[in-house]
Amino acid sequence: MKTSSYETEYISAPNITPLVDVSLILVIIFMVTAPMLMQAGIRVLESKTGVAVGKHAASENICINLKASGELTLDGKRVSWKSLSGELRKALRKSKDKLVAITAEKENMVDDVVRILDISRQNGAKKLAIMKGQEERGEKRGGHE
What we know:
Layout: H1 17-37, E1 62-66, E2 72-74, E3 77-79, H2 81-94, E4 99-104, H3 110-122, E5 127-131, H4 134-137
Parallel strand pairs: 1-4, 4-5
Antiparallel strand pairs: 1-2, 2-3
């Protein structure tokens, strides 16, 4: 009697199609989300000059001074953190070159200075400058050291 020689063949090679599908989907997701993850930064360059020399008068610039106590002044006028955005927007409308110069004391937190930079940029400042305080330049101690 002849028996059926029906043999079951086992698939010995792994099926990589689902792996390729998932990998391609992940590549597409990363390509779409990568530009959103990049944050715009503020470029800060150190001045090479020893004294403040510029083509514009200091009166044309908008000056923000941050004291160690947290007190803010905008062009010599005291402002609060809440009103800084509105006052800065008004001052920037009048400014020709839209330059904001920030002066902070050594005791200030970097977070506060960056917050002022962000507020300035959001309200239309085209150029930002971080100035040294008077104590750092040696002006309060009677001249140069």
